[in-house]
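Recap from last week: sequence in, structure out.
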Amino acid sequence: MATRKTPGRGQTTPGSAPAAAPRIAVPAPCWCGLQQGDLVVVDTAPFIYVLEDHPAFAPLFLGLFEDHANGRLRIALSTITLAEVLVGPLRQGQDTLARRYERALAGFEVLTVSAEVASTAARLRATSGLRLPDALQAATAIECRAVALVTHDRDFSRLQGLRVLTGAPPAA
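Predicted C-alpha cells:
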C-alpha cells in the first residue's frame, strides 16, 4: 500500500487548495493612532482635565490614560507640568489634594529640564514665538524622543517636526 506524503507548509498537492497563511495578531492602534509601546509627553491640561474629571474635556484624554494603565503606552511629563498641576490646589489652600495629585503623577516618568531641553526650548521660542513654558514642554518631547506631545493647547499647531495630539473624542 502506498503512503501519501503530507505537503509541508506552503506546499500543495495537485488539485488541493493552498494552505492558509498563519495569522499574525496585530495589536489594535492605541489612543489617537499611537502604537503599542510609544512614548508620549503629556502637557498640563490633559492631566488637570482627568484629575478633576472635567465633564467636557476629560473624555478626550481618558483613552490615553487607559492605554497607559494597560501597559500599551508610555507617558512622561516634565517638571513644568508637575509644577503647573499643583498650582491650582495649592493656591486654594488644598494641600491634601496637591499631595494626592503629586502621588498620581509619580506613576509616570517625570523628566527634568536639562541644559539640552533649555537650549532646544530657546530655539523653539525664537523660531515659533511659543511662550517659555510651552517651548519647554515641546523641547522635553523632542529631547526624550517622544513620538508626540499630548496637549489641549492650540498654540503648538505652528510647530514643525513635532507630532502634536490634542485629544480624541470618546468612542461611540
